[in-house]
Amino acid sequence: MRAFIVxxxxxxxxxxxxxxxxxxxxxxxxxxxxxxxxxxxxGFNPVSDRxxxxxxxxxxxxxxxxxxxxxxxxxxxxxxxxxEMDKLFWCDALILQFPLWWFGLPAILKGWVDRVFxxxxxxxxxxxxxxxxxxxxxxxxxxxxxxxxxxxxxPNGLNGALAQSSSGAIATACLAFTPRHRxxxxx
Length: 187
What we know:
By secondary structure, this protein is of the alpha/beta class. The protein has one domain (2-186): Flavodoxin domain (Rossmann fold), CATH 3.40.50.360. The chain has helices at residues 15-29, 39-42, 64-74, 79-90, 107-116, 162-165, 169-175, 182-186; strands at residues 2-7, 33-38, 93-99, 139-145. The chain has a four-stranded parallel β-sheet with strand order 2-1-3-4, sandwiched between helices. Helix 1 links the parallel strand 1 and strand 2 (33-38). The longest helix has 15 residues, at 15-29.
């Protein structure tokens, strides 16, 4: 199996860092191939704009999805985006390792999702959704840490049950790879 771990925490010695290292070591020692994108160490730019592309579809008006569709047709994604896309296509399993911040993904990981999961048929769109998507049959796992007492995320806690609090962006990130589990993630 080929595993791709996307690590999104600024402190290498954090619990998230320990989980990423443990996952990589466990997978590698079991004979699996592992690639890690440590977004902070890479200096990954989470801002989605014209810098996502080396081509231009409309120089007068920027429309993200139109530019993504054009780039998908002509191989026009910027090198940093293309490299991450290549890792997605390479892997059999995607692991997103991150802390829950303000009930969602850290901005750097949200930006990674926005930039790498491009529309226009390369990753999704054009009838490529969920069970019919380009990643059908692959797996994904979100390994999420929370620095808060469990009582805050209980059904009667201040923040409510975690499954209800963390849908949205987290579910979106995992859905591309695990379409048959989308209802479980959203519940």
